[in-house]
Inverse folding.
């Protein structure tokens, strides 16, 4: 995650990339991607594609891209993109 953050140029921004190798947070948030097709393709359970706005330790918004017929969120990943997060910020903090 550190290298990915560096490549994205996040060092001097308010964004933080975090890893969850044991899925502790993933399971606590209920965003485990455990659809049989994705498990077969990826080998183990992964985290769904999502973005989350956390302010002072409180989750203010969570945007999960997965759908019933799209467990990986490939059809509509946009709900987890930065533009949606900016929209959430503008709504929560006008």
């Amino acid at each position: 995650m550190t290298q990915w953050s560096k490549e994205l140029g996040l060092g001097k921004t308010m964004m933080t990339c975090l890893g969850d190798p044991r899925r502790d947070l993933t399971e606590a948030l209920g965003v485990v991607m455990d659809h049989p097709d994705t498990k077969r393709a990826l080998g183990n359970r992964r985290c769904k594609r999502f973005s989350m706005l956390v302010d002072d330790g409180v989750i203010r918004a969570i945007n999960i891209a997965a759908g019933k017929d799209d467990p990986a969120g490939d059809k509509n990943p946009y709900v987890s993109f930065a533009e949606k997060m900016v929209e959430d910020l503008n709504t929560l903090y006008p």
Notes: The two ends are 31 Å apart (CA to CA). The first helix runs from residue 2 to 8.
